[in-house]
Structure formats: C-alpha cells, structure tokens
Amino acid sequence: MTGPLQIVLGTISVLFLIVASVMAYRAVRAMVRIICTGQPDGTRFGPVKTRLKTLAIESLGHTRMLKWSTIGVAHWFVFVGFYGLFLTLVEAFGEVWDPAFHLPLIGEWSLWNLFADIIGTGTILGIVYLIYRRQKDHPRRQGRTSRFAGTNEGRGYFVEAVVLTVGICILLIRALKVSSDLTDAPAWSHPISGAVATLLPDSPDLLTIVAFVKIVVSLTWLVVISRILNMGVAWHRFSAFFNIYFKRNADGAPALGPLPPMTSGGKPIDFEDPGEDDIFGRGKIEDFTWKGMLDFTTCTECGRCQSQCPAWNTGKPLSPKMVIMDLRDHLYAKAPYLIGEKTASETMPDYDILKPSDEQVWASGYARIEGTNDAQAHRPLVGTLEEGGVIDPDVLWSCTNCGACVEQCPVDIEHVDHINDMRRYQVLIESSFPSEAGVMMKNLENRGNPWGMGGNVREDWMKELDFEVKVADGPLDYDIEYLFWVGCAGAIDDRAKKVTKAVAELLHTAGVEFAVLGNGETCSGDPARRMGNEFLFQMLAQENVATLDAAFEGRVPGMRKIVATCPHCFNSLGKEYPQLGGHYEVVHHTQLLGQLVEEGRLTPVTPIDRKVTYHDPCFLGRHNKVYTPPREILDSVQGLSTQEMHRCKDRGFCCGAGGARMWMEEKIGKRINMERTEEALELDPDVISTACPFCITMLSDALTSKKQNGEAGEHVEVLDVSQILLRSLTPVGVSAPGAESGADVGTKADDVAGTGSAATEHGPTA
C-alpha cells in the first residue's frame, strides 16, 4: 500500500527524526553539563531500593498530584498516555510508509489495543480538562489570586496543544484502520475508535497523513524543548523522575522538618574551624548543589505552591513558584559562563535602567534581565531592582518557612531549603537582613532568648503553681520520666506561660514525673537558624546539647525523653539536634497529653458547651505530621463542638510567625495573622484553639484588633489545647493556674453558665 504520498511523507519523517534526535541529544548533554556545575551532594543516592520504591509510588501512583483529585486524575491519564503510548509513535513511522503496518508481536494483540483505546481517549479527555482548568483559573479572570499568575502561558498552551493533537491523532489512526479494514483485532478491543470509525471514510491515504501529522507534531515538540532548556512545563516529563528519586528523604517524606546543615563542597561546614574556601550559603547561582539546579529545571510552573503560600495570599511579593522560575531562568542564562563557553567582562553593568516587565510588575524580582549577557554573569543572586538582583530582598524575607509550597509541589522541589540557603549567605556574608531581626539575634547571643530578658526569669512561672516543679541540677533522678522543655516563649511570654502552667498541671495530675532545666535552659536556636544565622544556631544548639547530655547522663536511648510545648523547639530538639550529636526522644505536649487521656490517666469530666476551631501550627503539622493528637484531645472533651477551617491540616494557613517572622515587622500587604483569624471567625467560634506559643501570640493579637473594631465577640478566646483540657478537668467555678477560669471557656460576660453561647446555636460538628 506504499505509493508516492507514503514515500514523500515517510522520507520527510525520517529526516525530521534524525534532526530532532541530534538536537535532543545535544540538549540533554548541555542540561547535564549545566546541572553538574552545582556543588556536590552525596546524600541523594541511597538506599537505592527505598528510593526506587518512592519513585514508583509517586510517579505511577501519582500520590502527590492526587492531592488535587480531579486535576490529578486528568494528569495521570496524560502521564500514562505520554509513556504508555510511546509505541504508537513508533508505529506511526511504519504507518506513514504503509498504512497497514502494525507493531511486531503486539500490534494485533487485543489487550494492547484495548489499552491504547482507553488510555488514548483518557489522554484526550484529561488534557481537555486541564486546558479548561487553565482557562478557568487564568489570571485574566482571577488576577493575582490565580495560581497561574506569573506562569509562562505561551509555553503551557504549546504543550497542551501538542498533547491534544497527538491524542486525537492516536484515536483517528486507530479508527481509520477500522474503517479501512486494516486491522484484525476483535471489535471489543477498540470500542471507542471503533465507534469513531463509523464516521470516517475508507482511506488508507488519510491514515498516512494523520500518522505524518502525529510525527511532525511530536518531533516539533522535541525540537522546541531542545532549544529552550528552561521550559519546565515540558522538560519535567523527564526530569521529574530524577527529581523524585534524588529528593531529600528517601522514604518519600517532603523536605520539611529539619533544615539540612550548611555544606560546602558536599561536606558540612565545621564552624569552629571552617576551610578557607568554604562557601557559606548561596550567594551565586553556581553555589547551589546539583540537586538544587535539578529542582529549578523540573519546575512545571503549575502554581500549586503559589496558591498555598501565605505570603503570596496576603499581597507580598514572594511566590515560591517564581523564586524557582527566577533561579532557573538565571541559571540557564548564565550557563555559558558557568561551563566556560563565555567569559564575563570585568566591568559591572548598569542596572539602573531595569524595570519589571509589564505583565509581572506586581512580582518584584521577576524577569528583570532576559537572555545571556554580561548582566546575567555579574548580577547578584539577592538584590533590589536597582542592583539587578535575581531575587528581591522583600521576596526572600517574606517567607515564613511554613512549608506549604514543599507539601504541595507534585515534583518534590525543596523551596524552603533554597530560600534558607540564600538567607544564610545574606546574614553570614553580606550582613544584610531586616533591622528588627538584628535586635533578635543580639538578644539570642547575649541573653539566650529573643526578648533579651535575663536568664533568671525562666523559673518565675513555677511560683504560681501549688506544687513543686523539680529543677534539674546535674543528672536527672531515674524516677524522672520526662524533661519538660519550657522554651523561651513558655518561660517569658505571659500568654505562653499560661500554657506552660496548664501542661505542668496536667502532667502533675496524671502522675507523670518531670523536671525542667529552669535557668539552665537557653533558646533552641530555631529563630537564628530560620533567619539564616547558622553560626548562632550552632552556638546555642551545642550549648543545649551539652546541658541536655549532662541531664541525661547515664541514660540509654529510650530514657532520654523530652516534652516540648513549642513546635519550633520540638522540631529543633528532635530533628535538628541529631546533626550536632544530640539524640533524644522528643514529643510535643499534645502527643503526650493525648496518650495520657487514652490511658485514662487524664479524664475530662466537666462538659464544655463551646464551639472550637483548631489552627494547625505549621511546625507541628506540615513539618512534623502531628495532626491527630490535638484533635483527639478536643474530641475527648464532652460538650465541645469542633469545626475545621477550610484550610486545615496539610493545607493549613500559617499564623505568620515562622521563619523568624515573629521578630520582623510585616510591612507589605495584609498581615498573615489577620487573614488567618478572619478565616477562623467566619465559623463564629467561641474558641480558636492551637498548640504553639507563636500561634497564640499572632492569633491573639489579631483577635484583639478585631474586638477593638467590633468584628469579634468579646467572649472569643485563643487557647492552647492543653488549657481546654485542663478546664475540662476542673469543676465549674474552681480556678486552675493554667486554666484561669475553670470550665467556662469562651463565656460571654453576661452569660456565666454559657447557655447563650454561640456554640449552642450551631448544628452538628462539621
């Protein structure tokens, strides 16, 4: 069935394939060379079996994509169609020459034909839905709130058009084989294409033309991406597999929790004796590791991270997506200088003429310099528009380290690590950071706490208890089960001290033997580390490790237990201190209290007729996956009506205090704590509950402002979960140091019994 048409189109197809293959090979080689210019990182390769398992689960199971279910299902069909139907492209080369061509062995196999029919149709339907969602969520409709704001829409349209065209061609080729009687496969193996065949003519030549179109479109896509190495929306089809395999945690957990130690040349920096050529943080694009560069390359510009970012959602310039895009575009623009193809001039360029593009004028730092030139070679990684910076300082310092971006990224990009690595360079090398944070760091260095209070105040909270709290003086007695890590806020901040007293009361009531370090405790170092001052973190952490090791002297693993009320301390002590040789079994107070309730050692007896909504602290929830214990404690309290905010658990919204933002003024956009408090007040609660002293401070401040403006009832409170539990253990009218008002949670001033509480007007728990 080979005629002149087949010969001409077949010849063109083969020639095009040769050209496209050569271009693709050169593109991949260039990409690998560029990525390999990054610093080494030897932690990403094993264990191989665990990483391969994670890769299989995440890619084939689409576990991260399916966090957004409908979009995830649509993308799964497109994903399976791209790889599973690759053989249809191979077959198309034969069909151009001979319309009756079939793949050897499987061409007429019924199951293969059924698979191709179903997945081919699923690919078409999937991409049509994704096209619909891109248009529905387009910035022209949603403006800045669109997750596609800042995305290169033209590239997205191109990829979508290619997928749709190829999918249609696959179905048409199969249908034309049926209508032209060129297949012996049973009818049940091609139900969809068989139905389409009833609308098509008997035309082998048309089949050849459609196969040719499929080849040309596919190879055009390959040529285009070979010319545009920073086209993540296309290249992620290949690089995502490697990015998932080489993710920070081999077991598949997102890159949250502990920050990795500062490394140079692939090895942790010894701050007591650093090498002369050690690189502190990331001050240039080439300072990132090869894995960081792979992250930048893999970004699909889908905007999931952006849609969840509390900074972006409150009008700040930080978009995690655009941070990665900016780094990626700068990497590939500077690439000729990195691999030695070009040499930068010694003269610094004039950046005064730079302006953000009209489309991205609201996104500070985006698309300031385009193309490969000396400006790219010289520009600082972090800097203002006038300085030609790749990342604007306002972008860098807006991050709360909440981890929403990392949690949502379908290709495992490690945004928080990269942002903090850039902060480390700014703090340690450039000494450039918000002035308020400088006061906090001085207080940490001189006083051991962010507030600058004297160390002798750390034991004041114990004076209001009616029982003695043991203070560690040397190794702990073996009857002490837990060391209670009070934390700076828990010992100094008035609101957090109430939580400290409540937890102490509950542990005492349950018969748990515990002790505290008292004045021997100093800051865990979390604010310093998240700020970027790794040197100060190391100093504080090493001091604490020495203190803790002395307290746990003679104890074997399993007997070195710490309970902490602050999720930031909980994260540092349990996840980051092992980097410095400090190994302890650290639990959050909600975990321990939940266990005590389950064991019957704490039994809520007093019903509390109030409506409560729970706010997930980022460093307890997303960073450490502790979602259930606080909710189980609330569920154990009789009478409580609980309702979730629409952004909760792994999609919870930050209070605005993380990433050392607690000690930095929020000058741009809406205050994050106001946004979160408004979200809680929409549910008309009596109590906004949480389990973090920073969250209590931020939410309380916002609630006070709302009360002053008449936008919240005077009876509404912000309480820690432990305070509610303590009140449920306390008879009405009897006060307790940590509970203050017994069981009367959220009571209106003129409603002592609580019978008129808003909670009594609500229906079933949502």
Automatic annotation (TrEMBL):
<keyword id="KW-0479">Metal-binding</keyword>
<feature type="region of interest" description="Disordered">
    <location>
        <begin position="735"/>
        <end position="766"/>
    </location>
</feature>
<keyword id="KW-0004">4Fe-4S</keyword>
<dbReference type="GO" id="GO:0016491">
    <property type="term" value="F:oxidoreductase activity"/>
</dbReference>
<feature type="domain" description="4Fe-4S ferredoxin-type">
    <location>
        <begin position="387"/>
        <end position="419"/>
    </location>
</feature>
<feature type="transmembrane region" description="Helical">
    <location>
        <begin position="68"/>
        <end position="90"/>
    </location>
</feature>
<dbReference type="InterPro" id="IPR036197">
    <property type="entry name" value="NarG-like_sf"/>
</dbReference>
<keyword id="KW-0812">Transmembrane</keyword>
<keyword id="KW-0408">Iron</keyword>
<dbReference type="InterPro" id="IPR009051">
    <property type="entry name" value="Helical_ferredxn"/>
</dbReference>
<dbReference type="Pfam" id="PF13187">
    <property type="entry name" value="Fer4_9"/>
</dbReference>
<dbReference type="InterPro" id="IPR051460">
    <property type="entry name" value="HdrC_iron-sulfur_subunit"/>
</dbReference>
<dbReference type="InterPro" id="IPR004017">
    <property type="entry name" value="Cys_rich_dom"/>
</dbReference>
<dbReference type="GO" id="GO:0051539">
    <property type="term" value="F:4 iron, 4 sulfur cluster binding"/>
</dbReference>
<dbReference type="GO" id="GO:0005886">
    <property type="term" value="C:plasma membrane"/>
</dbReference>
<feature type="domain" description="4Fe-4S ferredoxin-type">
    <location>
        <begin position="290"/>
        <end position="320"/>
    </location>
</feature>
<feature type="transmembrane region" description="Helical">
    <location>
        <begin position="6"/>
        <end position="25"/>
    </location>
</feature>
<feature type="transmembrane region" description="Helical">
    <location>
        <begin position="157"/>
        <end position="176"/>
    </location>
</feature>
<dbReference type="InterPro" id="IPR017900">
    <property type="entry name" value="4Fe4S_Fe_S_CS"/>
</dbReference>
<dbReference type="Pfam" id="PF02754">
    <property type="entry name" value="CCG"/>
</dbReference>
<dbReference type="GO" id="GO:0046872">
    <property type="term" value="F:metal ion binding"/>
</dbReference>
<keyword id="KW-0411">Iron-sulfur</keyword>
<keyword id="KW-1133">Transmembrane helix</keyword>
<feature type="transmembrane region" description="Helical">
    <location>
        <begin position="110"/>
        <end position="132"/>
    </location>
</feature>
<dbReference type="InterPro" id="IPR017896">
    <property type="entry name" value="4Fe4S_Fe-S-bd"/>
</dbReference>
<protein>
    <submittedName>
        <fullName>Fe-S oxidoreductase</fullName>
    </submittedName>
</protein>
<keyword id="KW-0560">Oxidoreductase</keyword>
<feature type="transmembrane region" description="Helical">
    <location>
        <begin position="206"/>
        <end position="229"/>
    </location>
</feature>
<keyword id="KW-0472">Membrane</keyword>
